[in-house]
Amino acid sequence: MTAATATPGPAHVRERAAGAPVHRTEGVALALILFGLVALYVPVLVEYGALLLWSEEDNHSGLLLALVLFAYWRDRRAFTWSATRRERVVGASGVFVALILYFIGRVTDSVQLQGVSLPIVMTSLALATGGTALARRWLLLAALLIFIVPWFGPIADALLVPLRLALTHSAARLAAALGFPVTTSGVLIYVGFVRLNVAGACVGLRAMVSMTAIGFLFLHFFPARSRGAALLFVVLMPVIALSANFIRIFALIVTAALFGVSGEAIVHDVAAYVEVGVVLTAFMLLGRALGPVEARA
Prior knowledge:
Strand order of the largest sheet: 1-2-3
Oligomer: single chain
Structural class: mainly alpha
Number of helices: 12
Radius of gyration: 25 Å
Strand content: under 5%
Largest sheet: 3 strands, antiparallel
Order of helices and strands: HHHHHHHHEEEHHHH
């Protein structure tokens, strides 16, 4: 009896002693991973952030990046070191491919290649550390990182001309129906002696896509109660984004008619941020309505 009870003691001590270095090693490995991500991508943010992420014309991308990083932090407890040997090999190969894309992007000054390397790195690191389960769990977050870089450019933006014209003319017709002196010519709106140019910043593809991508984050934070509810949320996201753009254009027209150029300039600077708040509030209300019944109780 004495020998039987004495055996677990040393084994338990040996298990703790062996486990301590492994825990420290994992902490060091995680610190090195985070240091590598910072060293690679902070310079990209410094070089391109003011131009692409935080400017008035594309402020949604900066918000999207901040929300995705917050989502990773919020779900940090899901991180594990449970990958198999095969998953580590596949994940390391993915990281190698991403680093090649990053290097080519740095050499050729292509922010698109540098940007697409980030989701590949994040997915591959998740696979190499937490295995397939973690990679699947964080796949949406990694995919949304693609939309923080300007993929669409002038060619795809030109495809939006019919959409810009439709929104512009609809907002102008509504203002005219309310008695304001409004006429249109292409994407130009004439409000009395004031001329407004509805540029891509007002109804651009990047703004709509990045705001829609933010809507997908709401599905990550607040899952819908069913697949049908999730599909309805996805269908309504671009409708909400476009509706917010329509309201923004209409507000600019009314402000120009009432207060002239100076008033329109002030509202134009504020409207972009108000638009973000309106869209996020609409997403939140829609997500709550389509969420689990117990969550709405």
